[in-house]
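Encode chain A's predicted structure.
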Amino acid sequence: MAFVPANSLRFHVQRLPATAAAADPDRPVVVFLHGLVVDNLSSFYCPLAVPVARAGHEAVLYDLRGHGRTDRPATGYDSRTAVRDLVSLLGALDLGHRPVHLVGNSYGGTLALHAALARPDLVAGLTLLEPPIGGAWVENMVDTLSAAALSLEDSPVPAELLTLRLRKAANLTSIADRLLNRTSLIDDIAASRAFTSADFARLRCPTLIICGEHSELVPGARQLAHHAPRAAMEILPGLGHDVLKESSGVLRGTVLAHLEATAAATARTARAPRAGALVR
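Encoded structure for chain A:
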């Protein structure tokens, strides 16, 4: 565990080196972005981050602004600030000069897409697990979070959970209350601009979108897969918005295959002559 200062905050970070036998310094670093409110970096650790490191990719996990053990300021929960947080953190980790492959789950997938559009020079590839990117996602997300905020305001639940010695659940509930009722998180999401087909068309890096068969997010994911030039989509049968928890084996193989393909594409790009360079 480490705490890293970046963009005027202290971020909780876990960094897993690539297995020495398979390590390749030219491979993109794999950076994981988790979902909203009750999620944190631990959701990725065993299902994906450890296997990714064992397969030869350096892995970086961090708690997003306000989540987990990262600092929780009152403001700054918009996508632009999230991208600045990411870029600043990579610089603080001395990774700003290397391409990264972003793996985002749920809202983390939304942020990963924002990062790839804002910094195409930095993002070599995307893996998006159940990303909420359709036109209605902002309104639906705000409604859900607002209802949760009302239920948690002045709630005795955290104290009751501690009484029952359910410390982890009490901590997650307390974090959710503070995020939803004491920060600008809901207002910042409400002010978000929905993605357009033109945004998707600008996406140039290899992108894999993975959704559960019964997920309400499939229509938006299909739009992205249709308009982005290098995007593909995988539908996992029998699942909803729970692919990270419920499909670890299948998901792991799919993600690792995509990472290998992205690494190969990045290596080919690195070896290609630059425009205007003398070719002998």
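DSSP finds eleven helices and eight strands in the chain.
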